[in-house]
Design goal:
Lambda Exonuclease, Chain A; about 40% helix; about 20% strand; globular; binds iron/sulfur cluster
């Protein structure tokens, strides 16, 4: 079984043993420092969600398709449709950078964190700048966009990849792309076939927040006290309500058992 490696201030920190920190845990910190602390210091994680297997299948197929054009050294037709002057980037380490447990890595020395994240794809423009690309799959009747509050996580994700690449001494464009596959609900029958509308959404990233956030994470991890939780969190309000109800229920139970004897 997968063993969690937790941050231990006696073992980890500057000048001590390096601590691995994935980009998804940075995202957890941004959502709620308390939940992050529970997870990385105390070993209590939020329950895992179900695997999004259909989304993974779309990712997998898109990777295969873009890889064909990578080998040909040509832009994918969708890139031409959107007039993107770039082509899929060919690099010997691309498969490592795409792998969940390795990803692209950098040791952030001020906190001694090994920061890593697995990218979907990279394109390269005519000036040799790398463009971070993330594949997304959804199914909605309206046009896909990046306007929902929760999609800030997508933007953070892209900016962390841009940060990682720049720390690895690559020239990185602030423009990244989301390749969106939108499963159509309009066909009259299924016929064991999902059809998709494909769209590319550009995004201007700014990763200037990453260093500062890593230092904040370090400050919280070396501390022996729980940081505040996120406001308006459904999980926490569920936890608190459940505890309150259980305690008052238990009191009633105890009272009734005392009356009986
Ligand atoms: S506020 Fe939500 S995210 Fe934060 S500790 Fe509570 S359950 Fe976790």
């Amino acid at each position: 079984m997968y063993k969690k490696i937790l941050f231990d201030p006696k073992v980890n920190g500057p000048g001590k043993k390096v601590f691995k920190l994935s980009r998804s845990k940075i995202d957890l910190f941004l959502k709620c420092p308390r939940c992050f602390y529970l997870d990385r210091r105390l070993g209590v994680s939020q329950p895992a969600s179900y695997p999004f297997t259909l989304n993974s299948a779309v990712d997998h197929l898109l990777k295969k398709e873009f890889d064909i054009y990578r080998q040909l050294g040509r832009p994918h037709p969708l890139m031409e449709k959107y007039n993107i002057k770039a082509k899929p980037f060919l690099h010997k380490d691309l498969e490592t950078w795409r792998h969940n447990f390795t990803g692209i890595q950098f040791i952030f020395e001020p906190a001694n964190f090994l920061v890593y994240g697995a990218i979907d794809d990279l394109w390269v423009d005519d000036n040799g700048n790398l463009l971070v690309v993330d594949y997304k799959a959804t199914s909605k009747d309206s046009e896909v966009n990046l306007d929902a509050d929760w999609q800030v996580a997508y933007k953070n994700q892209m900016e962390i990849y841009q940060w990682l690449l720049s720390k690895n001494k690559f020239k990185v464009s602030s423009t990244g792309y989301f390749v969106y596959a939108n499963g159509l609900r309009s066909p009259s029958t299924f016929d064991a076939c999902l059809k998709f509308d494909m769209q590319i959404i550009p995004y201007q990233g700014d990763y200037s927040w990453v260093d500062k956030t890593l230092l904040e994470i370090n400050k919280i991890l070396i501390n022996d006290s729980l940081p505040d939780g996120a406001k308006d969190c459904e999980y926490c309000s569920y936890r608190h309500q459940a505890i309150e109800k259980e305690q008052s229920f238990k009191k009633e139970e105890d009272k009734n058992s005392v009356t009986l004897f």
